[in-house]
Amino acid sequence: MADNFVLPLPDDFHAHLRRGPAMAAYAERHAASFGRALVMPNTKPPVASASEIAAYRREILAAAARASGGSFEPLMSFKLLGGMSRSAVLACAQAGAVAGKYYPAGATTGSEDGIVDPESAEEALDAMQEAGIVLCIHGESPEAPALDREARFLPVIEGMLGRHPRLRIVMEHISTVESLEFLRRAPRRVGATATAHHLLCTLEDLLGGELDPQLFCRPVLKARRHADALREAVLRGEPRLFFGSDSAPHPRSAKAARRAPAGIYTSPSAIPALAGFFEAEGRLGALESFVARTGAAFYGLAPPRGSLELIRGPWTVPEELDGAVPFLSGRSLGWRLGRIEV
Ligand code: NCD
Ligand code: ZN
Predict the structure, then answer these.
(1) Active site residue 113
(2) Given this model, what pLDDT does residue 68 score?
(3) β 134-137/169-171 pair status
(4) For a FRET experiment, which of 14, 58, 155, 338 has its CA 20 to 30 Å from that of 284?
């Protein structure tokens, strides 16, 4: 068995870097695994205008410049707000946004100001289609029972596809067989991201034994059959299904509070954990398309430049990094992160 493995530098098509004092550490950590990341706009304040896109990009680039190599590229997104006008959307596209993010109001962390009435986003969706930018959707109906929310939202996506015949859509962090089947039936302008945690963990890991708030996220982890279907899909190289970490750090104290927020800090360990999984299934070669090819092709971006070395472990994931508890903390993984070459 080789004791290292070189991947094209992975892309992350769904990342939360936050804003404020903690952001620099999260961005640096991200830059240790990824060359590019689509940065989610559910920050405080939200990224919902051309000027906020420019300001947030500057903040991230300044932080990432301090990371080794300094070659990290944030791909910017903006948050769709109800009633957003065509001109506001076109200005965001002009400011360099590659995507706009649709959060149903109340569906997840930082979505209080999301969309209440889908009708109120129609003008913005038309403008996104016109500008050729991608609509990223947190596809959950907040009013449905927790485990049914994703499947219940699928008809809303169906409607959007019908009304906007050229709009490109990414179903974010899909967690169910129903979403996978929807993706397979959908036109080629529909893609989806999958996280490491929805592939590697199930509802049993969250609450089958002692409750593990570190594994609490939206969409909530699902039963084994859903994770199995997603695993099988990525191992086979499912078209238009690509990696988005949904790394969503919350301070350790917040996760330990009586009401724990949804979100898992996956960026420190996602790539080593995925390498272990793909290798155990005898498909280490397929990891490359999942984390470094399929997503860039869907977004119409050049393939990643540079490479990431993975070094054979064992590596015990630390109990705390950057003030948060990383995904799989305390567990021993077969791979750890090595050098980035650009
Ligand atoms: C994310 C966060 O904390 O910002 N939380 C999560 O559980 N995934 C928001 C999101 O992507 O849903
Ligand atoms: Zn997210």
Answers:
(1) no
(2) 64
(3) parallel
(4) 14
